[in-house]
Design a protein that fits this description.
The chain is α/β, with parallel strands linked by helices. The chain has 2 domains: 3-130, Helicase, Ruva Protein, domain 3 (Orthogonal Bundle); 174-182 and 189-302, Rossmann fold (3-Layer(aba) Sandwich), CATH 3.40.50. The chain is 40% helix and 18% strand. It has a 7-stranded parallel β-sheet with strand order 5-2-1-9-10-13-14, sandwiched between helices. It has a 3-stranded antiparallel β-sheet with strand order 7-6-8. A hairpin with a 2-residue loop joins β3 and β4 (43-45). The longest helix is centred in the C-terminal third of the chain and has 16 residues, at 288-303. It starts with a strand and ends in a 6-residue tail after the last helix. The chain binds ligand FO1. Residues 8-9, 36, 47-48, 50-51, 66-67, 88-90, 94, 150, 153-154, 196 line the site of ligand FO1.
Length: 309
């Protein structure tokens, strides 16, 4: 059964890891947001892609969720002494990824091809695809002006008040469209709906490819809070209710099912009233076993769903 998972950063990477535990490599394709990619210090940085790759390869930093474990920071410190910008934390090991990605891109490889090469080097089984080969930068309209994504997210620590998210609709990578054509079902990982998942869904032809497939979304909001990142703050600033119901409403018409955390069980009727089926479980992934169990429950759930329209 071919499954496509749509993923952003840390939450998406954890569920993707759990899915990889439950499916054979040939059955799983993970499509990753690249709206947060940017050029920095002359390098092509793809943070969400790398978070997914490092997680699947067992290289991820367990404290931050992003970057590599056992990291050292000599290059960044040396750059700082030279007056270079150091607000984006690039570790020595992580830098090797960006150097190699940039080298291969300049030699003419597509981002899809570079990502496949990294997967092979790190022994990653499932296919990991960038949503697009061309840059598709997400911009954030705030009370302090329009900010590039990482400027907002890392440099400004999500402090400016968000008025709107401006997405770039690049052509989806050809392999993404092919994977969706072949998919029996689609899982939307517990990633930020506005900053991580919408950039993927917004690509031309994407939503059409989901029509006729069973789609389940896993809530990134638990007990009115985001497990990681600014999803809750963003919901409030965009004038939505800060709850899993608002996320379900965001996916209404696209997803037929919604995986809701047990602490939010009382919200199930409100989500069902939106026309989505609900599976209540523990969605907080503290361990590898949690990831595998949530993935297994989500797979059973998505296979039980009718196709979205
Ligand atoms: N996030 C931070 O909050 N601070 C950082 O310094 C930082 C560095 C970084 C380096 C490489 C990488 O792949 C990711 C990094 N992230 C950092 C995370 C990342 O920018 C965001 O979590 C995502 O873009 C949003 O999903």
């Amino acid at each position: 059964m071919n499954i496509v998972a749509l993923a952003g950063g840390v939450g998406g990477a954890k569920l993707a890891h759990g899915l990889a535990h439950n499916l054979s490599p040939a059955e799983l394709t993970i499509v990753v947001n690249t709206g947060d990619d940017f050029e920095h210090l002359g390098l092509w940085i793809a943070p969400d892609l790398d978070t997914v790759l490092y997680t699947l390869a067992g290289l991820a930093n367990p404290e931050t969720g992003w970057g590599q474990r056992d990291e050292t920071w000599n290059c960044l410190q040396a750059l700082g002494r030279l007056g270079a910008p150091t607000w984006f934390g690039l570790g020595d090991r992580d830098l090797a990824t960006h150097l190699e990605r940039t080298r291969r891109r300049r030699a003419g490889a597509t981002l899809t091809e570079v990502t496949a090469a990294l997967c092979q080097a790190w022994g990653i089984g499932p296919r990991v695809l960038p949503m697009a080969d061309a840059p598709a930068p997400t911009l954030v309209e705030t009370d302090e002006g329009v900010l590039a994504f990482q400027e907002y997210f890392v440099h400004r620590r999500c402090a400016p008040r968000v008025q709107a998210v401006r997405l770039t609709a690049a052509e989806p990578a050809p392999a993404v469209l092919a994977a969706l054509e072949a998919a029996a079902a689609v899982v939307i990982c517990p990633s930020n709906p506005f900053l991580s998942v919408d950039p993927i869904l917004n690509l031309p032809g994407l939503r059409e490819r989901l029509a006729g497939k069973p789609v389940a979304a896993v809530s990134p909001i638990v007990g009115g809070q985001a497990l990681k990142g600014p999803a809750a703050k963003l919901l409030a600033e965009l004038g939505r209710e800060v709850s899993a119901v608002a996320v379900a409403a965001h996916y209404q018409g696209l997803a037929a099912g919604f995986v809701l955390d047990q602490v939010d069980a009382a919200l199930a009727p409100a989500i069902e009233a939106l026309g989505l089926r609900v599976r209540v479980t523990d969605t907080v992934m503290r361990s590898d076993a949690d990831r595998a169990r949530l993935a297994q429950e989500t797979l059973a759930f998505v296979h039980s769903l009718p196709a979205a329209h």
